[in-house]
Amino acid sequence: MKTRVVITGMGVVAPNGVGLSAFGKALKTAKSGITHHKVLEDLKFSCQIGGIPEISEALKAEYFTKLQLRGFNSSGILYGSIAGIDAWKDAGFKVHPDSDLDPDTGVIFGTGASSVDKFREAIYKVDEKQVRRLGSTVVLQTMASGISAYLGGMLGLGNQTTTNSAACSTGVEALLMGYDRLQAGRAKRMLVGSCSNHGPYIWAGFDAMRVMTYKHNETPEDGSRPMSATASGFVPGAGAGAMVLETLESALARNATIYAEVLGGEINSGGQRQGGTLTAPNSKAVVRCIKNALQNARVTAQEVDVINGHLTATVKDATEIQNWVTALGRSGEDFPYINATKSLIGHCLAASGAIECVASVLQLKEQFIAPNRNCDDLHPEIAKLIAKKNIPTQLKAQPFNIIAKSSFGFGDVNTCVLFKRYKV
Amino acid sequence: MIKAELIEKLKAIITPYVQDEVAFKNLTEDTDFIKDLKINSANLVDVILDIEDEFDIRLDNQDMEQMLTVKSAMDIVTAKLNG
């Protein structure tokens, strides 16, 4: 028999809300976290808007010691640590530097790049022949697995501790890798999630590729327009999302709060064949990913009530909808409700999957469908495929059981996971 | 620089890195940075950099290897200042 896996804790650091309650409220009210950033304007970026979570110095001090903050210059590790610690506490565990080692819990926490800001700092010093003046903090903040190393130590986790990286699929991939480890009976709990840095040095490459919008520098909140006829590229974001996955047996034994059940999912790649490239998806592989996810989760296409899409606000949104239509064999009014969290927070890159999984599970737990922002002018190609009523632009209270979440990424990589409402 | 003044300056520098407050309170010249104060060995290089900044001196790799106790730190800093 399959080991059942549930979610017993969550944490989130998003551009429109830090912490579960602020983020949940922002989802319901379609609060945008996108603002104009002078630093991008000064550096002559085409896209000068972005989503950056607000973290005060006081909040930082609640999570990090003064010593940890000396020479600390990594927004990704900052966001990931806050989300991870919050998820762990939310699951009912205490955080203490002298806590007993927990051999039954591991952490898989992904990121796209380690701290480029810390790298920049170090590179300047090295080129000035000051390598001996770098101090001890460079390696930990620039190694890819910095975030899992920080979290593993702060929480005293003794099972597998690692970082995964699969571009914008990273967050969902981390979740499914943690799920697999629980399925394999190798751990009782896995802290999973992903994080992404903010700022010009991480976003510059995308600006250079002209995949970010340059049309909304004066109207930042209107900039992120998934599924809109006037979508003109994504808006960059940053943050982190985290979840504590736990075997149902372990969760019940300690009487934990259960947010939802993870039914399973799929991870695959289009192999950059059949129309797939480093940057464009192979639609056949996307369809196969969704279909296999349903099969692995033992869910029929008809049972999917809501979709939280990848939907970035590029020309590929219509392709994604077409792929969902093909995979589910459902279209028009029969199509599930769909939401694009990126309309509120932009594309948080490696963190996007994890933040959007938190958004998905909050909707499932609290039985609502979050409004989409900026898509009143639905893209005509999308309007041909699915009914407008299935893309809510107002908060909708809605009883439902199953939500599907997908993330896709550069390298032609795909992920899809199915969450189910847990009833006691 | 008189000894007491030097010790006070060193104490201020190592404060953020100390993991054993009791040993820090009872600090003497014989106190060992790692064994007694439980300073993370990786942080010793940060202590050295802070000492360099405070006293405007430069410490080479050999100095760093020897600088394991309050006394050895005082001796090396004093020698540099007088040198």
Largest interface, with counts of residues having CB < 8 Å to the other chain, equals: A-B, 8 and 7 residues
Taking Cα atoms only, what radius of gyration of chain B do you get, to the nearest Å? 12 Å
Total number of helical segments of chain B? 5
> What series of H and E elements makes up the topology of chain B?
HHHHH
Main structural class of chain B: mainly alpha
Q: Report the β-strand fraction of chain B as a percent range.
A: under 5%
Mean pLDDT of chain A: 97
Question: Can you put this structure into words, describing what you see?
Answer:
The model of chain A has no long low-confidence stretch (mean pLDDT 97). In chain A, the strands form 3 sheets. In chain A, strands 1, 2, 5, 6, 7, 8, 9, 10, 11, 14 and 15 form an 11-stranded mixed beta sheet that branches. In chain A, strands 3-4 form a two-stranded antiparallel sheet. A two-stranded antiparallel ribbon of chain A has the order 12-13. Chain A contains 16 helices and 15 strands. Chain A is globular and about 65 Å long. Chain A has 424 residues and is an alpha/beta fold. In chain A, helix 9 crosses helix 15. Chain A is 35% helix and 19% strand. The longest helix of chain A is centred in the N-terminal third of the chain and has 16 residues, at 75-90. Chain B is mainly α. Chain B has one domain: ACP-like (Non-ribosomal Peptide Synthetase Peptidyl Carrier Protein, Chain A, Orthogonal Bundle). Chain B has helices at residues 3-14, 21-25, 44-55, 61-66, 70-82. The longest helix of chain B is centred in the C-terminal third of the chain and has 13 residues, at 70-82. Chain B starts with a helix and ends with a helix. Chains A and B meet through loops of A and helix 3 of B.
